[in-house]
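Q: I have 107 residues here and want to know how they pack in 3D. Can you give me a structure?
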Amino acid sequence: MSQAENPIRERPGHEVSVEDVRELMGASTPHFALQLRERIARLIAALPDGHPARVEGEREIARLERLGLEGETRGEGLHESERPLPSLSGVPARAAGERPESASAGA
């Protein structure tokens, strides 16, 4: 994902709007959530407390942090025979190259 901003937002005198924040939030996914969070934070940094775009941006930053750190479940969820992915269950993923317990027990 590019960190480049829309040139219109970079122009001197451009007032940040709620629509600017919403354009960045778009269809956010867990993969890009933390990058979007940083872009929105930069966009609203100079706005005063209570500014509508800042309020919307802060709300979106909180949502993006949850999305980026906790992930999301789409569709019907897990079936009885499935286990959740480590990123959604809070269990840390194994380190690269580390073998599962069952494979290393017989080695």
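Q: Anything worth noting?
A: Residues 1-73 form one domain. The CA atoms of residues 41 and 57 lie 7 Å apart.
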